[in-house]
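Re: that backbone. Tokens:
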């Protein structure tokens, strides 16, 4: 399983986060001007790197997600917290991640200024595949599970 694709599918599954990713793609494609109302958009950036923590699984990768908004709307910076909460929900940090384990590392608590036109907050996660369950070292006959004991006695009765 591709870790990056698994994370992207979770982000794209949330309508708001998907729109923020598209806004960033539009910005990269110069579809959004740097002046005027069109530049008044929020967006999400995703940056991957090899896992760099000693306590992370060896095949783990780190992902840094930044929620950006126009500096001209800095008084509405609470919106960044809303986006980060949606991000946590989309990545499902409650442990029901399927074959992928996602652990939040850190969050920027302060609003950070970026370049000339945005402010942002960031979250960092470690992402790894969960180890596959290994088979039992002995064969199990599924027909014997829940059946009567071999001596014909009824369980729980004397």
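Recovered sequence:
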């Amino acid at each position: 399983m591709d870790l990056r694709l698994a994370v992207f599918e979770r982000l794209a599954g949330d309508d708001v986060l998907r729109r923020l990713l598209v806004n960033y793609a539009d910005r990269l494609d110069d579809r959004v001007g740097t002046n005027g109302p069109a530049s008044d958009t929020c967006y999400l950036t995703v940056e991957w790197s090899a896992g760099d923590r000693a306590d992370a699984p060896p095949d783990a990768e780190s992902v840094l997600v930044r929620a950006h908004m126009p500096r001209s709307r800095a008084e509405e910076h609470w919106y960044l917290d809303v986006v980060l909460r949606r991000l946590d929900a989309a990545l499902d940090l409650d442990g029901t991640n399927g074959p992928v384990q996602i652990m939040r590392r850190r969050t920027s608590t302060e609003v950070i200024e970026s370049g000339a036109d945005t402010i942002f907050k960031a979250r960092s996660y470690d992402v790894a595949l969960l180890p596959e369950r290994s088979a039992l070292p002995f064969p199990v006959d599924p027909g014997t599970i829940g059946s009567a004991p071999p001596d014909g006695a009824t369980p729980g009765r004397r």
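Residues 3-133 form a domain with the Alpha-Beta Plaits fold (CATH 3.30.70). The chain has one domain: 3-133.
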